[in-house]
Design goal:
Elements: H1 9-21, H2 24-27, H3 29-36, H4 41-59
């Protein structure tokens, strides 16, 4: 995470929790490509969390 330019501790912690409970997340090439698609992987991850949250809210 730090190697990709993450500075926000809350996002780093979120990512670590996510990978702890879903070990396939970190090694998933689609996720890696998504995070590295733009010049700002930290913002890409924020966007991922926002989209995921919105999808979960729609289902409930």
């Amino acid at each position: 995470m730090i190697g990709m330019g993450f500075k926000d501790e809350a996002l780093i912690e979120s990512y670590l929790y996510l990978t702890a409970f879903n070990p396939d997340f970190h090694g998933n090439p689609q996720i890696k490509n998504f995070l590295e698609a733009e010049d700002n992987p930290e913002q890409q991850y924020r966007d991922f969390l926002r989209v995921t949250d919105n999808l979960l809210k729609r289902k409930h």
